[in-house]
Each structure stands twice: as C-alpha cells, then as structure tokens.
Amino acid sequence: MTSSRGAGPIFMCVGMATLAFIVLPLPFIILYSFSPNAYAVISSQGFTLKWFVSFFENDRFMAATAASLQIAAITTVASLLLAIPTAVMAVRHRFVGRELLLTLISAPLVVPGVIVGTAALGFVSQTGIGPGFWPLTVAMIALALPLTMRPLIANLSGLDPDLENAARNLGASPFSAFMRITLPQLAPGLVAGGTFAFVEAMDNFAIAAFLSNITFTTLPVESYSYIRDIDDPTVAAMATLLILFSVFVVFLIERLLGLDKFLDLG
Fold first, then answer.
1. Where are the bilayer-spanning segments (predicted)?
2. Does domain 52-265 have CATH number 1.10.3720.10?
3. SS in 3 state form for the chain?
4. In the chain, what are the domain boundaries?
5. What pTM, to 2 d.p., does this model score?
C-alpha cells in the first residue's frame, strides 16, 4: 500500500513532464510564424502576417491541403460506416473467429507506419495501380478503422440491449430499432471515432510519403519537402493554423458532447 501511494506522485511528475515536453514547443512555433525575421523566433522588428499570406499563395500547399481534407473526409465517413456494423457484431454477437477478426482489424495499430507504407507501395506497384489519391485513401481507411472501432465498442458495451429489444417488441423492425434507439446513444463513440479517423488521415506522414507522387501529395509530405528546401516560417504559419483548428475542434466537442465522455471513450 505504501509503495502504491509513493508511486502516485512519481507518475504525476512523469505525466506533467511529458505534457510539458509536448506542449512547450507550441508557443515558439506560434511566435515564429509571426516573426518578420526568417531566422529568429522573436524579432525586434515586431510581427508580420506575410508567412500566412505565403502559405495561402503557395499553389502546392493549397493543392496538398485540398487533397488532405478530401482524404480525411472520405476516410472518416468510410471508417464510421464500416466500424458501426463491425462493432455491433463484435459486441452483440458471439461467433467462431470473432477474436481473430478483431485481431486482424487492430493489426495496423501495432505495425509501424513505415512497414505499412512500404507494403502498400509494393502492392500498388506490383498490381500496376501506382501511388495516388485512391490508393492512399484506402490505406488510410484501413489504418483508421481500428481507431474508429475502439470508442464505438466501448460506447456500445455500456448500452443496455434491452432498450432495443423493447422497441422490437413494440413493433419496430430491427433496423428501425437500431436507428432510433441505439444509434443516438452512440453519438459519443461516433464523435470520438470520427475525430480519431480524421486526425490520423490528415496528419499521417509515414504512409503518405510512400503513396504520394509528383502530381499528388498531402499536407504533411508537402510540408516536409518545403522545409527540406526552404528555411522560412511558412510551415510554422501552417502549423499555427492547424493549432487553431485543433482548439476549435476541442471547443466544439466540449459544447456538443463534453470532453469527459470523449476522453473516457478514447
């Protein structure tokens, strides 16, 4: 008992140190995005918005942003459509091969992204499909599916199936009972799973780097290419916009769902 109590403050300190390590660079990125000096985080010359203008005027950045948003949107919708019936089958039914199915679905979580990207590139090359928008989208769906399923399974496991059975006893069809009784209660899991899928598809670099080409690229890959060749705060400006977008998403989740439910399902 004593060792357990003593470990509490240690874990708290480790957690706070890890959080600080992750969060502390963010203010410097934001300051750098407003710096008129391309080689200084804080400049005596004041602040500027020219790097944000540079980002929006860069055709390659705009094309990469559009591609990333399209892939993220398709991945989110497709992952949810696949995850809902799979989660229902996994939670509500027992069948031979159930554990194997869940293991196969969760496999992308334990395989490094570089290996998944290499395997995907080998597949599209051998089949003649080639890298591009749809191969990357399919790879993102496969990667995001287990992330989408986890909160849905957790959400569904906490629901009372008798409510749906009562609706069926009152004359509702199985589909109608699910849509009217169960699906509204899955809102927290849908929001959490959809958020995870969208973020993963939008932010993934390891797989996108293998499935991009000269005419098609995503925002993370294009950002890497830019900072490799050019040293200015344009990418910092892009990162600042993504930080603001993330803050907006967190605020929206808090208003619509509540962060406590979101974090419990995650």
1. 12-34, 61-88, 100-121, 133-156, 205-227, 234-253
2. yes
3. CHHHHHHHHHHHHHHHHHHHHHHCHHHHHHHHHCCCCCCCCCCCCCCCCHHHHHHHHCHHHHHHHHHHHHHHHHHHHHHHHHHHHHHHHHHHCCCCCHHHHHHHHHHHHHCCHHHHHHHHHHHHHHHCCCCCHHHHHHHHHHHHHHHHHHHHHHHHHCCCHHHHHHHHHCCCCHHHHHHHHHHHHCHHHHHHHHHHHHHHHHHCCCCHHHHCCCCCCCHHHHHHHHHHHCCCCHHHHHHHHHHHHHHHHHHHHHHHCCHHHHHHHC
4. 52-265
5. 0.86
Question: Residue 1 has what pLDDT?
Answer: 47
Q: How far apart are CA 65 and CA 61, in angstroms?
A: 6
10 Å CB burial of residue 207 (0-12, 13-18, 19+) is: buried
| Single-letter amino acid, residue 63 | A
**pLDDT tens-digit map of 165-199:** 888 888 888 889 888 888 888 988 898 899 999 99
